[in-house]
Amino acid sequence: MAHRIWYPQLDAFDCIRRMVAILSFADDEGLSMERAQMADLFLSSPPLLHSVTMPMQVRSNLRELGIARPEKSFLSYPAAPLLFHKMEPVQRRAIRAMVGKNLIDLRLYEKRALSLTDDARSLLDTRLKHSVAELKLAQFIVSDILAIGEDNIEELRKRTGLRRLAA
Q1: Model pTM score
Q2: 74-103, pLDDT tens digit by residue?
Q3: How confident is the model at residue 139 (pLDDT cuts 50, 70, 90)?
Q4: What distance lies between CA 49 and its chain's CA centroid?
Q5: How many Cα atoms sit within 13 Å of 141 on the Cβ side?
Q6: Helix residue ranges, H only, the chain
Q7: What Å distances lie between residue 127 and 17, 38, 41, 102, 136, CA to CA?
Q8: Are 24 and 116 in contact (CB under 8 A)?
Q9: CA distance 6 to 135
Q10: Could you say which of 52, 70, 89, 103 would form a disulfide bridge with 120 (CB–CB 3.0 to 4.6 Å)?
C-alpha cells in the first residue's frame, strides 16, 4: 500500500482557506499580491516567522503567540525562500480559483491587489472554520509583519528574505 504525505503549503484548497483568513484582516484597499503570498507562507508555516528581522515590539507580540522555533518543532522546515518559491504556483492557482468563484474583488485583482468580496466574507462566517489561534496568527501577520515597510515592499523583502523573481 502506497502512502502519500500531504503538505498543506502545497494544497490549493488549503491555500484558499488561509487566504480568506488573511484577507479578512486587510483594509479596504486589500493587500498587494506579493504581501498576501508572504502572509500565506507564514500562516502555513508559523515557525518560519522566527527568521524574520522585526522590531522589538513585533518580536514581543510573536512571543505572546507561543509559536515554537523551527528547531524545536516536530517538523523540519526548508529555508523560507525555497518554500516561498515552491508555493508560488499553488498560490496562483488558488487566487485564480478565488477570482473565478467571486471571492476576490476583480477590480483590485486587475491592479495586483487582493481583497475579499462580500460573498467571501459571508463564507468566512458560515463555511470556513478557522481556529481562534489561526485567526490570531493571521491578524498578527497582517497587522504586524506586513506593516513592515508599508510604503516600500523592499523593506519587507529584506527583513523576510523573500522575493519573487518576477516581482
Answers
A1: 0.91
A2: 778 889 999 999 999 999 999 999 999 999
A3: very high
A4: 11
A5: 31
A6: 12-23, 33-44, 56-65, 80-100, 106-109, 118-126, 132-140, 153-160
A7: 10, 24, 23, 15, 18
A8: yes
A9: 22
A10: 103
- Asked if 128 contacts 46 with a C-beta cutoff of 8 angstroms, the reply is no
- Spatial neighbors of 158 by CB under 8 A, at least 6 apart, are 53, 149
Q: What are the distances in angstroms from CA 5 to CA 1, 11, 46, 55, 146?
A: 13, 11, 19, 36, 31
User: What per-residue string of b and e applies to 68-85 under the rule 16 or more CB within 10 Å gives b?
Assistant: eebeeeeeebeebeebbe
What span, in angstroms and rounded, lies between the C-alpha atoms of 35 and 33? 6
Q: Cell triple for residue 142?
A: 497582517
Looking at every residue in the chain, the average pLDDT score rounds to: 90
**Average pLDDT score over residue span 127-135:** 84
Alpha-carbon gap, residue 116 to 28, rounded angstroms:
9
- Residue 113's φ and ψ, nearest 5 degrees, are -125, 155
Per-residue pLDDT, 73: 78
How many residues does the structure list for the chain? Answer: 167
